[in-house]
Amino acid sequence: MIRAALALVWVQLLQMARSRRALFALLGWPVALTAVLSFALGPAFDGQLITSVRVALVNLDTGSTGDVVAQFLRDRSGFTVTAASSQDEALADVAKGSADVAVIIPADTTEQISHGGKASVEVDAPPSKSTMQSVVAGVIQGLGTVLPVLSDVAGKGTAPRGLAEVSFVSQYSGGTALTASTYYAIGMTTLFMLTQAMNRAEAMVRDRRSDRWQRLCAAPLPALWRTVAWFVASYVLLFAQAVALWVASTLLFGAKLGTPGLTLALLAGYAFALTGLAVAVGYGINNPETVDGLSMVGANILAALGGSFYPLYNFPHWLQVLGRILPNGLMLQTWVQTALSPDPSALRLPLCVFAAMGVVCVLLSLGQRAARRNAV
Amino acid sequence: MMVLGGILSGFLRGLVRNRSNLLWMVLLPLVFLLVFIGIPERSFHGTLVGVVDQDHTPVSGAIAQQLARLPDTRVQAVNAGDARHLLQTSQVTVILTLPPGMTQRALAGQPLRLGWDVAPDAGAASGADSSQLALDLRAWLTAGETAVRAATQQHTTAAGGPAAERLQQAFVQGMARAAATGTVLQPITRLTVSGQAQTTDISDAQRAVIGLGLMFIVFTVFGSTGHLLQLFASGSWDRLLASPTPRWLLITSYALCFFIVGWLQYAILYAGARWLIGVAVPLGAMQVLILTLFILAICGLALCVSTLVRSVELHMAAGSFIAVATSMLSGAYWPVDIEPGWMQHLAWFMPQSWALQGFRAAAAGLGFTSAVWLSVGVLAVFALAFFAAGVLRLSVSRTRI
User: Fold this and answer.
1) Vertex B316, ends B311 and B322: CA angle to 5°?
2) N or C: which end of chain A has fewer CB within 10 A?
C-alpha cells in the first residue's frame, strides 16, 4: 500500500518535471521577479536613492543669497552644478539630457528675504527625473531654514564661525541590514509558494475529473492513501520549490536569508500549511476554472495584503495587523525577523499556527470526502 | 459588417460569461487600486523619527518637540535597545540619538556629535527627507547656541554669570524662534518637456493609477488573445478560414475585439479610481491617442506571442511575466529614476515607459510638444511593428490547412 502511494507521488512529480510551464512557474518566474525587484529597488533599500544629480543653475539674484544657494549646491556630494545664463538655456540643457534638473533663482531673492518674505526658487525636471527633482527641492528648502539663522547670527555678531558644529554619526551600523534582495527573495518565495499551492489544488481538481482518478478509485488502494499521496507529493514539490528559491536567491542575489536551520524549519512549516490548504481547496471545489481564478486572483490579493510586493511597514496599522493574520504575511514577517536576528523562540508561534492550519485543512478535506461518499 | 458584429458579440458574450475573466478584469484591479493607492494615500507617509533621548534635559526634550511640530513628521520616543530593530525593519525613517552630556556641550559652545541612522526605505525619498531634517536640526542648534551666547554676554556685563537653567531656557527659546521662522526659500517644482515648463503636474496617486492601468491592459489583452489559441485547438479557426469570409476581415475582427477589451480594462480602472478611491485621472485627446497606440502595440505583441506558444496556459504565463516585469522596468510602479542607469536604458524599449511619459506630459498641459510627439511616434512604431509581425505570423502559421 505504501508502495502504491509512493508510486502516486512519483507520478505527480514526473508530471510536474515534464511541464515546461509548471517548471517556469515553479522556479523561473520567481527568480526573474526577485532579480528585477532586487536590482530596481536595491539603491532605495541601501539608502542611496539618488547618488548623482546634474543641475543647470541660473542665478539671476542681484544680492548674495543666490551665490550662497549656488555654493551650497556645489558643496553637496553627488551634485554637479553647471551655470546657465538664462532659463531657456537651462531648460534646453535639461531637454538635451546634459542636465537632470534646472534651478532658477529669481532676481529679487535677496530682497524678498531681507524684507522678511519668502523667495520662490524654480526647480524644473522632465517626467523621468521626478525623484531627483524632489531631492533638489528638498535641499533648497532645507537651506532656506538655515539662512535666517545665519543672518540672525551675523546680526548679533556672536558666532563668527557660522553654523553650529554638529556631526551626525551612525550609532547602529554593523547589524544585518534589510536589503532589497533579502526582502524580495522572502516576499517572492512566500508569494510563489502560495501560487504553487493553488496550482496544486487546481491540478487535484482536474485529476479528480480525469479517467486516471476513476481507475485509481477502482484500484485496491484505500481512499485515505490517495489523499495522503496527494498531500506528500504536493508537500515535496512546495518544499523543493522553497529550498531551490532560497538557494538561488542566496547565490544569485546575495540575499541574507538567515541561518539554514531556522529557515528550513520555517519553510517546512509554511509548506505544510499551504499543502493542507491545497488539499482542502482541491477537495472542496469541483470546477477547475474557479480554482484557477482563486489561484491567480486570490493569491495576488493575499500577496499584496501580506507584504510580498510592498513592505507592510508603510501601510496603516490595521492593515499591518491583517497582514500578520494571513499565513503568507505571518511567514514573511517571521522570516524577515529571523533573517535579521536569528531567534529560535520567535518561530514557536508561527510554526504552531502553520501546523494547526495544515491539520485543520486536511481534516476538513477528509470530512468533505466522507460527506460526498455518504451522499453517493 | 455582419461577420465583424458576429465575432465581436460572440467574443464579448464569452468574456462576460467566464467568471474568471470578471475576477481578472474587475476584482483584482479594484483590490490593487485600494491596497496600493487608496489606503496608502489616506495613511501617513511622511517622516517618522525615532528619538533616543539619553540626555534627559529640557534642551533634548525641546529638540524632540520641535521635530514633532514639523509638517509631515512624526516623532516616537525609542529605547536604545529597540532602535536597531526599528531601523532594520524600516519602522522609522531615521533614528536620532541625543547622547548624554549633549546639553552641557551645547551650552559650552563645544562641537556636538549626534547619532543619526537612516533606515532603508523602498517607497519614499527617505534620503532627501532625512537630509532636510538634518539641516533643520543644524539650524535650530545654531540658533540655540547663538541665543546662549547672547544671554551669556548680557549676564556677564550685568552680574556674574547666568544659571544653567537660564541658559537652557535661552537655548530652547532660540531654537523655537528659528523653527517658527521656517524656510525662506520656497521651491516651486515644474514639469519640463522639450524646453517648456509647466507647474501643473499629475499627483503620485494619478501616476500610480496610470501605471496600474497600463499593467492591467497587458494582462487583459494577453488573456483575451489566449482565445485565439482555444480557436486553434478546437479547429474553429481552420473552419473560419475555410468559410467565404476574407482572412483579413477575420483577423481585423479579432484584433478589434482585443483592442476593445484593452480599452474596457482601462475604463474599469479609470472608473474604479474615480469612484472608489477618489483619484480622477485626466483623459484628453492626447491621452486617448497615447492609450490607443499603447493598446494596439500590446495587441500586436500578444498576437505575436499567441502564434509562438502552444497552450493558453503558456500564453497567459508569458503575458503575466511580460506585464509585471516590463511594468516594473518602465517605471509603472515607482519613479524610473530610482532604478540603476542600465535599467533606465532598458526602459526605452518598453511601451509602458513611453506611454507613461507622454501621458504625464499631456496631462500637465504639454501635450503638443516635440517630446510628447516622440512618445506618440515611438508607440506608433511599436504598434505597427508588433501588429504587422503578429498578423504576419498568424497568416503564415495558421493558413496551412
Assistant:
1) 130
2) C
Chain-chain contact of B36 with A176 (C-beta, under 8 angstroms)? no
* Residues B167, B82 share a domain: yes
Stretches where chain A sits below pLDDT 70 are 1-2, 4-5, 44-51, 150-165, 171-178, 313-314, 372-376
Asked if the structure places residue B89 within a domain, the reply is: yes
* Per-residue pLDDT, A358: 93
Which of A42, A148, A24, A84 lies closest to B140 in space, CA to CA?
A148
Residues B329, B182: one domain? no
| 3-class SS of residue A101 | strand
Kindly report the CATH number assigned to the domain that includes residue A81. Answer: 3.40.1710.10
Structural domain boundaries enclosing B93? 47-187
Contact A184, A41 (CB under 8 A): yes
Nearest-neighbour CA in chain A from B245: distance (Å)? 33
CB contact under 8 A, A40 and B343: yes
Residue B75 lies in a domain: yes
In DSSP terms, B73 is beta-bridged to B47
Taking the Cβ of residue A74 and every Cβ of chain B, the question of whether any pair is shorter than 8 Å is answered with no
Contact B340 A102 (CB under 8 A): no
B84–A175 CB contact, under 8 Å: yes
CA distance A287 to B20: 11
Residue B376 has a pLDDT of: 92
Domain of residue A25 covers 2-44+178-375
Q: Are A289 and B45 an interchain contact pair (Cβ–Cβ within 8 Å)?
A: no
**B28 to each of A289, A301, B139, how far by Cα in Å?**
16, 7, 48
Chain segment B100-116, per-residue pLDDT in tens: 999 988 888 888 888 88
DSSP-assigned states of every residue in A197-264 = HHHHHHHHHHHHTSHHHHHHHHSSS-HHHHHHHHHHHHHHHHHHHHHHHHHHHHHHH------HHHHH
Whether residues B254 and B347 share a domain: the answer is yes
Residue carrying C-alpha cell 481578472: B24
Q: How far is B174 from chain A (nearest CA, A)?
A: 10
A305 at B interface, C-beta within 8 A: yes
Q: Tell which of A121, A156, A191 closes a domain.
A: A156
A2 Cα to chain B: minimum distance (Å): 34
What is the per-residue pLDDT across B231-274, written as a single tens digit (0 to 9) for each?
887 888 888 888 887 877 888 888 888 899 999 999 999 999 99
Q: What's the order of all strands across the beta sheet hosting B47-53?
A: A166-169, B112-118, B94-98, B47-53, B73-77
Chain A interface test: which of B84, B190, B192 (most A C-beta within 10 Å): B192
Among candidates B129, B329, B336 on the partner chain, residue whose Cβ is nearest the Cβ of A36: B329
Question: Which of B316, B337, B360 to mutate against chain A (most A CBs within 10 Å)?
Answer: B337
Task: Specify the pairing of strand A119-125 against strand B185-193.
Answer: parallel
Q: Which residues 220-279 of A are in CB contact (within 8 Å) with B?
A: none
Best of B79, B185, B219, B336 to substitute, by most chain A Cβ atoms within 10 angstroms, is: B185
Question: What pLDDT is stored for residue A46 in this prediction?
Answer: 62
Min Cα distance A73 → chain B (Å) is 13
CA B248 to CA B225: how far, in whole Å? Answer: 17
Q: Which of B145, B184, B369 would you mutate first to test chain A, the one with the most A CBs within 10 A?
A: B184
Chain-chain contact of A138 with B150 (C-beta, under 8 angstroms): no
Question: What is the C-alpha to C-alpha distance for residues B15 and B25, in angstroms, rounded to an integer?
Answer: 10
Q: Helix axis angle, A180-208 relative to A260-284, nearest 10°?
A: 30
B150 lies in a domain?
yes
Residues A12 and A73 in one domain: no
State how far the Cα of A276 lies from the Cα of A233, in Å rounded to an integer: 12
> Do residue A258 and residue A352 come from a single domain?
yes
CA distance A354 to chain B (A): 23
